[in-house]
Amino acid sequence: MANLESGLMQKEVEYKSKLGYLNKETAEMHLLRDTLLQMKHSIARIKKRIAGNGKDELNKNVSEFELLKSEVDFNKERYKQTLVKLEETKVQVKQNAKNLIVVTPPTLAQTHSEPNKIKDIITLLIVLSFLYGILTLILSILNEHKD
C-alpha cells in the first residue's frame, strides 16, 4: 500500500514536472495520466479491502496512517524538486549576472578632450593648401598646353 502511494506520488511529481515543458496532449502525457488513474484505482481497491466491510477502528487508523505517510513522502519529493528548481534558478541568475557586471563605474569628465579646435583648424589649413597647390598645378599645366 505504502509502495503504491509513494509510486503514485512519484508519478504525480513526474507528471507535473513534465507538464512544464510538454503539451498535455502528447502520447507520453496521456500514458502518465492513465498510469496515475490506474494507480489511484488500485489504491482505492486496496483501501476498501483494508477497511473491510465492518467499521473496524484499527483498519481506519491504519489507512489514515498510510495516507499520512504517503503525504509525507509526497511532500518530501516536492521539497526535493523545489530545491532542485531553486539551484537551477541560482545558476541562471549567476549566468545572467555576468552580463550585468559593471567593469568601471561611470565618471564625469574633468576636462573635454574632443573636439580639439586647434588641431582641426591646422588640419583644415593643410588640406586646403594641398588642394590649392593641386589646382594651381592643374591650371598651369592647362595654360602651358594652350600655347
Secondary-structure map:
Layout: H1 2-19, H2 27-51, H3 57-97, H4 117-146
Protein described:
This protein has 147 residues and is mainly α. It has two domains: 99 residues, no CATH class; 32 residues. 78% of the residues lie in helices and 0% in strands. It is built from four helices and no strands. The chain is rod-shaped. The N and C termini lie far apart (120 Å).
Low-confidence stretches: none
Number of strands: 0
Into which percent range does the helicity of residues fall? over 70%
Question: Structural class from helices and strands?
Answer: mainly alpha
Q: What integer is the average pLDDT?
A: 85
Query: How many angstroms does the end-to-end distance come to?
Result: 120 Å
Profile the largest sheet: none
Helix count equals: 4
Percent in strands: under 5%
Shape: rod-shaped
Order of helices and strands: HHHH
The domain count comes to 2
Defining key terms:
rod-shaped, 147 residues, 0% strand, mainly alpha, single chain
Summarize the structure.
With 147 residues, the chain is an all-alpha fold. It contains 4 helices and no strands.
